[in-house]
Amino acid sequence: MVDILYVEDNPDDADIFSRLVTKFEQSPTYTILESGSEAIDYLTGKDGQQRRTLPKLLLLDLNLVGLSGFDVVKRLRAADHTRWLPIVSYSTSDNPNDIREAYAAGINAYVVKPGNYQATRELLQHLCRFWLENNTLLNFQ
């Protein structure tokens, strides 16, 4: 099972994420996808694979090219298999309208990407500790 599914279309942000989490004391398993449509296909099995066990956390950029992160959340919340999947928005936007729209779509938390490497490391450690170690999940597989 993958701990984190990270959907990010910016290769630099994806690279930073990869470099940081692999240095954690307890490094989570993760998969990075580049688009909202890839995420939907991955989580629902429409990519030709049998439907996978869901990750413990979906870390989702909202400003994706094509199918936006907002649309991804709405689709996942509408499907029985993914309705209870923990989704954290991980965005550069601190616009109140984006935050409101993301929560209305059904995210569990909204996190603004920090502006520097050290702050990003600390934030990702906190996110992993909470969502992967402390959060109690439903058995929604």
UniProtKB/TrEMBL annotation:
Signal peptide: none annotated. Pfam families: Response_reg (PF00072). This is Response regulator. It comes from Spirosoma profusum. Residues 3-128 form the Response regulatory domain. The modification 4-aspartylphosphate is found at D61. GO terms for biological process: phosphorelay signal transduction system. Keywords: Phosphoprotein.
